[in-house]
## 1
Amino acid sequence: QKEVEQNSGPLSVPEGAIASLNCTYSDRGSQSFFWYRQYSGKSPELIMFIYSNGDKEDGRFTAQLNKASQYVSLLIRDSQPSDSATYLCAVSGGSNYKLTFGKGTLLTVNP
Amino acid sequence: KAGVTQTPRYLIKTRGQQVTLSCSPISGHRSVSWYQQTPGQGLQFLFEYFSETQRNKGNFPGRFSGRQFSNSRSEMNVSTLELGDSALYLCASSFSHTAYEQYFGPGTRLTVT
């Protein structure tokens, strides 16, 4: 049974700070890793994906993957109030290709 | 490019009834996955279809079923509705299978009374 764990939060950061969101997964054979942002009342929006160990940057977002530690993180630089949302970590591959989601971390960016 | 569309957006049904939800994927995407989202359980995988074949199935009772048509559009059906089926049902499409990036539709909010 593949599991994906995230701190539920809420994680509160001041505007302009770096927000760090973490995720661990149980299936060592997992191959694809995704971060989704979900605003209240909306559907999840894909913001980052990473397949290889290391860092991947896209604008203010950096995804970090460490397969040996079964750990993936998302850094949001220069956090804005509009970044306030629930961030969902999702993992695919390994024993099967279905996408397994963590329960999400609620991020609040305070002006 | 148009995104994933789902119809209807909102639905109210009575216990014991059945419901059919529809999903049209992004043009060129051949894989469609369905998820149930509730406050307590989060996002849970229902099933995935690719080329009209169910490739993966989550841990849901047989009352939940789906199908995919030759144009990649998909439907899911829930029979004999229970109160606990009240949830946001999300459809996501991807190019090939779930190892690829998935893009979600706006969802169908189902309320069972």
## 2
Amino acid sequence: GAVVSQHPSWVICKSGTSVKIECRSLDFQATTMFWYRQFPKQSLMLMATSNEGSKATYEQGVEKDKFLINHASLTLSTLTVTSAHPEDSSFYICSAPQGAFTEAFFGQGTRLTVV
Amino acid sequence: SQKIEQNSEALNIQEGKTATLTCNYTNYSPAYLQWYRQDPGRGPVFLLLIRENEKEKRKERLKVTFDTTLKQSLFHITASQPADSATYLCALDGGNNRKLIWGLGTSLAVNP
């Protein structure tokens, strides 16, 4: 199957700093990528849809100025958590579908801990 | 709004038995339904996709059924193994924007 690579797999940062997470589709082009957040024993919560060449679409309740998404190329989307606070600590996962009616391929996830 | 429910309690079964997980949904008619496996600290991994006009899909020891009348999908793992222990997520298509609607997941533990 297709490969989506997410980096870093874990990061610890100080409160108030910013953290960038990268999501790459290694063997296919992804015009759309999805960013999720997952808390322990909870399901995936969609944060935003990343669109190549245009602005990201954010889900209700997700602050676009805090979670900056850039989809600069057909193989790379980045999520930047700005001015991180301890409540932003979570597991962040990206995914990319290859097309409609097909499965989504997920990155390995990034464990963010804000201290 | 759409609602999707999976067995909320963890499922514990003996090795070799068949595990059956349930996914129910309401207020929606998805074009397809997917099942994923998620291990702790990892992203979900795709297992099977079944379309609305398909009743059953198989892949090795896995079988998925899709009953659009009952609005239910069943996910079976036959001859279960301890390595099958994980959380299994059900997801419905969210329309032509390719978003997925996710269930909470069911934790499966296969005991040797």
